[in-house]
Amino acid sequence: MTRSKMFKTGMVTVAAAALFGAGVLTGKNTYHEPTSILHVVTVQWTPEATPEQQQQTLDGIKAMAAEIPGIKNIWIKPVRVQPREYNAAFALEFEDKAAAERYAEHPAHLAWKKLYDPIHKESRSQQITN
Prior knowledge:
Layout: H1 3-27, E1 37-45, H2 51-67, E2 71-75, E3 88-94, H3 97-105, H4 107-116, E4 120-128
Antiparallel strand pairs: 1-3, 1-4, 2-3
Helix pairs in contact: 2-4
């Protein structure tokens, strides 16, 4: 094999290895570990809670989020709710721990609870961060 042919073969091999490596790197899943706080709630409505009251309460989350500083995002359409006897779920994302703490006593949250408390039998909530 001539020196020129060996050089070309070597270059093709290097190019193929680089292409393979680029494919592996671009195929790798990336993720983030935000420092925001997720407040996730699952709800079991009372038997007396009407669909209108339930929807008003969920819509109230949007109004509350618009008023309370530090709420970044909300989720109000559950895909799956557990335990099975629970009927709804929602989540709030807070900028930081201070925002989550402000939420608890904020007048907009206290007003929303006047809608929520009478029509939920039980709820479970978790707060999660990194």
